[in-house]
Specification:
The protein has 4 helices and 13 strands. The chain is α+β, with helices and mostly antiparallel strands. Strand 9 and strand 10 form a beta hairpin.
Length: 298
């Protein structure tokens, strides 16, 4: 008789256990990570590309470069053109030095004549004549200074477009160096060494796998239990019947509700609208992109 009751009780306990597990977690979702698709910023043959799928790379690491031979030749041509144009630029100081010297000599002569006029040794007309001559020289200086300055400005204006092209090439040379943008793990490699690439063509995809994001969905009545910076318990499958517990922290809460995603099971299955919540989780090496996870509010 006791054996009969045990057999009758077993299914009831199993049903009760399943019912308890159903509400064991407050929300569930899938893990995602910060992903970056690194694209080529230059055109040409990939001469070096040290990237392997599954490899961990540091931010700022140089992983390859694109052929820059044509860019170097173009830069040398522009630098030669700039130098040739600069040679023709007049030196304002040298161009007006002669007339400035004439003015200096004339002013010295004027002072000498002024002394003679005061001593009644020469007539006033001689002083008037030298004053007129000095005015003419100063006008000539102004005219020559203006002419030479405009000529220099015109030549300088011709060099500006050349300088701009050189700066553009310098930027292209810098962009030909393939630099890794973030700390992370290479997920997919799209290009190989010796291939010809072009600006915007994907080279590889990398993700920060050390800091994962679990995107879960909560119902409206659960929002009062959630706040930014809140510590939560995160659970992922360990075996068929056990879970691995990890610490997590709420980093973002959606400001607007959305319809329940088909792939997500919420605590209240009758709710049509839910709020997305992001939970930061330090990856212990077991978490993968697309893996399911659950949370419990502490």
């Amino acid at each position: 008789m006791k054996q009969y009751y045990k057999l009758l009780l077993a299914p009831m306990l199993l049903l009760a256990s399943c019912a308890g597990n159903k509400d064991q977690f407050d929300a569930s979702g899938m893990f995602e990570a910060t992903e970056v698709i690194v694209s080529a910023q230059g055109n040409g043959k990939i001469l070096q590309f040290d990237v392997q799928e599954g490899e961990n790379l540091k931010a700022g690491a140089i992983v390859g470069y694109i052929d820059t031979t044509q860019l170097h030749w173009r830069k040398q041509q522009l630098q030669a053109s700039s130098k040739a144009i600069s040679v023709t630029k007049p030196n304002v100081g040298e161009q007006i030095a002669a007339i400035q010297q004439q003015i200096t000599n004339t002013e010295t002569e004027k002072r000498r004549i002024e002394n003679l006029v005061h001593a009644d040794a020469v007539p006033q007309k001689q002083l008037d004549d030298i004053n007129e001559h000095l005015k003419v020289l100063k006008k000539q200086l102004d005219a020559q200074t203006s002419t030479v300055s405009k000529s220099a400005q015109g030549i300088e204006a011709q060099t500006k477009p050349v300088y701009a092209q050189i700066q553009e090439i310098d930027e292209q040379l810098q962009n030909s160096i393939i630099t890794n943008p973030i700390d992370g793990t290479v997920l997919t490699k799209y290009a190989e060494q010796d291939e010809v690439t072009m600006t915007g063509k994907p080279l590889y995809r990398i993700a920060d796998m050390d800091h994962m994001i679990l995107r879960v969905y909560v119902t409206g009545d659960q929002l009062t239990q959630v706040k930014l910076g809140q510590d939560v318990k995160v659970y992922v499958d360990s075996t068929a019947k056990t879970y691995r517990e990890l610490p997590g922290q709420v980093s973002w809460i959606a400001s607007e509700a959305e319809f329940t995603p088909k792939s997500i099971q919420t605590k209240d299955e009758r709710a049509n609208l839910v709020y997305a919540v992001k939970v930061k989780v330090k990856n212990n090496g077991y978490l993968k992109i697309g893996m399911y996870g659950e949370i419990k509010f502490k």
